[in-house]
Design a protein that fits this description.
By secondary structure, the chain is α+β, with helices and mostly antiparallel strands. The chain is built from five helices and seven strands. The two termini are about 15 Å apart.
């Protein structure tokens, strides 16, 4: 799925999203040879209109979109995954890792660290049962972090409310598990 997002059935995604398959657009974001740096976004117009002001004061009417996303596939131990979402020091550990990583531009590392610290003020994790081996629902960003078989990944949403977001991320996760990765030769 991560290697070829276009192979995903739009009908399956539409069934999960509760919309018409013809509306589904599939985007492969951050395309890279390394699968862990890829994200897939399934997006569709939701009929909402949004008014935004431009820098010169003009108002524009934009169509609203909803989405389901999948990405950040990484090999990790179950203990490290659990620590990442349950540890009181996880945010500080990640800030330390980013600021010490010499492969990251210093300005980017500082911006990432500030973003992590700001996000930590409102971030909450709820452990969910029966989704993968271990999973955590994150608010306020409405993301589901899932661990199974030494791999973790994240399912994201942009939907109208948290309850619907949680239901749809669980449904997309079930879809992922029912369509296992095929080995590439």
């Amino acid at each position: 799925m991560m290697q070829n997002p276009q192979s995903v059935s739009k009908e399956s995604i539409a069934g999960i999203a509760g919309t018409d398959a013809a509306k589904i657009k599939i985007y492969n974001e951050d395309f890279a040879a390394d699968v862990s740096k890829r994200t897939i976004l399934f997006s569709w117009a939701n009929g909402d209109k949004k008014t935004v002001k431009t820098t010169d004061g003009k108002e524009l009417q934009l169509d609203g979109y909803s989405s389901l996303g999948l990405g950040f596939v990484t090999k990790i131990s179950k203990a490290d995954f659990q620590k990442k979402y349950e540890s009181k020091t996880a945010v500080q550990d990640e800030i330390n890792r980013i600021t010490k990583d010499e492969t990251i531009d210093a300005d980017i590392a500082i911006a990432e660290a500030k973003g992590l610290a700001e996000n930590a003020k409102t971030q909450q994790f709820e452990k969910l049962d029966n989704v993968g081996e271990l999973s955590y629902w994150e608010t306020p960003v409405n993301a589901l972090h899932v661990f199974a078989n030494g791999i973790c990944f994240t399912v994201t949403t942009n939907l109208e409310n948290e309850k619907r977001s949680k239901e749809k991320t669980i449904a997309l996760t079930a879809f992922v598990f029912s369509n296992p990765l095929k080995s590439s030769k």
